[in-house]
Amino acid sequence: MLGLAVFASLCYLASAALNKPSFCRDLDCPKYTVLQSFPGFELRRYEMSQWVATKDLVTRYDALKNSNMFYKLFHYISGKNTLGMKMPMTAPVLRTVIPGVGRNNQQTMMEMHFMIPHNMQPFPPAPTDPTVYITTLPPLDVYVKSFGGFTNHRMNLMKVEELKNQINNRNLYHGDHFYTAGYDGPRSMNRHNEVWLVAKN
């Protein structure tokens, strides 16, 4: 059974490498199929995948809390897990943004994710930080708008509004939350960013 599991993991890894988009550079990233392309955006179907995540409530966008979430996940892949195992960085750094929650609906829930490397997807080690956890993203259809340059929370909000206007039909997507995806380190100049809206089935 172990031999079959290893073989399946190697097959998955080879398949992922062959289908990896160029903006993932040399990093593992989630597998998807483009279902339809439109002027300025596309509809993608993502496969189920495992991620390590953490979250926090913010009253307004808080750069310090954002940095703290990043380093919690970075410490996990640097060995702060039950196996003491170091893992390579993956792409994108994915954030789920859920506005209008918490006290008087004035707060935003920010959940940050790093994808588990493909060869460890079936059996990731558990985090030792109690505020960090392994989560599964189910198969997902998302409308995606890509853009370059350095981004921030205000820019992401603007791009989400642009995407909504381009889709031009509120019945096609869930509007209560969105995703942001950043594929590059802070020193990279040729940057690729995305915002996602989850499509309704």
UniProtKB/TrEMBL annotation:
<protein>
    <recommendedName>
        <fullName>Heme-binding protein 2</fullName>
    </recommendedName>
</protein>
<dbReference type="InterPro" id="IPR011256">
    <property type="entry name" value="Reg_factor_effector_dom_sf"/>
</dbReference>
<dbReference type="Pfam" id="PF04832">
    <property type="entry name" value="SOUL"/>
</dbReference>
<dbReference type="InterPro" id="IPR006917">
    <property type="entry name" value="SOUL_heme-bd"/>
</dbReference>
<comment type="similarity">
    <text>Belongs to the HEBP family.</text>
</comment>
<feature type="signal peptide">
    <location>
        <begin position="1"/>
        <end position="16"/>
    </location>
</feature>
<keyword id="KW-0732">Signal</keyword>
